[in-house]
Amino acid sequence: MTVSDQHAPALEVSRLTAGYGDSTVLSGVSLALEPGRIAVLLGRNGVGKSTLVRCLAGLLPVRSGTVSMLGQDVTNRPTHAMADLGFGVLPQGKRMFPSLTVGENLDLGYLTRRRRAKRGGDPPLAWSPERVLDLFPVFADRMRTRAGSLSGGEQQMLALARAMVGGPRVLVLDEPSEALSPARVSELGRLLRGLRDQGMPILLVEQNVSFACDLADVVHVMDKGRIVAERRGAQITDDRELIRDLLSI
Q: Which CATH code is given to the segment(s) 3-247?
């Protein structure tokens, strides 16, 4: 990153259009994630949230518009190139390997960081396995436990831990609170606040309004493939009912 890019958004989407076949799902989506902040994207099922995540991760071509990460144009970069740049993503669902152990799942995440280090691109936030275990102490004495034997909440936490071991510069989470118990949702919120406090920019894609708004520095509401509202800071608390109303449209 050049000196002029030091204050660039961690992630910026500008007038992005994308879809599947002849169908257009995203129509001119624009949003920005600032360094050391949590930006939330709220929306009902089917409005385009996961489609946007797929575009950001290089899994779905962008038809028009741009995606920038840390001041660099990354529009339509392939998935492996995004990972090498430090784009970390936790897809919707428990994305871990159930037949592998906890330790083996974390080792897979660490491969990205090792590959980047060989190319001279190791990120400044070097999330070593030891540092990640400090954040997720539940796994410290369970490294040989099969991931498939963990509870649903623990599997979700393992997927997040694996993403962190990869040493991301930017972290995108797609519906991480889905199917978690209230206690696990609270634990997840604590972890995300801790990551933000340590400088990690996070794009949180959610349907859980209370959970997301409690964490957010900025909230974007999506409907029918467009951003229909944005709220920042105190507006998030003041307009929480409005945000709920927008999600019921």
A: 3.40.50.300
Which of 249, 213, 237, 232 lies closest to 42, judged by CA?
A: 213
Evaluate whether 18 touches 197 at the Cβ level (below 8 Å): no
Contact 121, 72 (CB under 8 A): no
Q: Closest Cα to residue 194, out of 130, 151, 136, 129?
A: 136
Q: Are strands 218-223 and 38-42 parallel, antiparallel or unpaired?
A: parallel
Per-residue model confidence as pLDDT tens digits over 27-74? 999 999 999 999 999 998 899 999 999 999 999 999 999 999 999 999
Upper half-sphere CA count for residue 169 (Cβ side, 13 Å): 22
Give SS3 for 85: helix
Tokens in use for 201? 């920019």
Buried b (16+ CB within 10 A) or exposed e, 19-49: beeeeebbbebebbbbbebbbbbbbeeebbb
Q: Which parts of 34-152 are beta strand (E)?
A: 38-42, 64-69, 72-73, 87-90
Q: What residues contact residue 220 under an 8 Å CB cut-off, 6+ apart? A: 31, 39, 40, 41, 42, 227, 229, 230
The whole-model pTM stands at 0.89
CA nearest to 53, candidates 22, 89, 24: 89
**C-alpha span between 85 and 197 (Å, rounded):** 22
User: Which tokens in the block code for residue 78?
Assistant: 């392939």
Nearest to 219 by CA among 204, 241, 201: 204
Q: Which tens digits make up the pLDDT trace of 216-245?
A: 999 999 999 999 999 998 899 889 888 888
Q: Helix, strand, coil shares of the chain as percentages rounded to 5? A: 40, 25, 35
Q: Where are the domains of the chain?
A: 3-247
SS3 124: coil
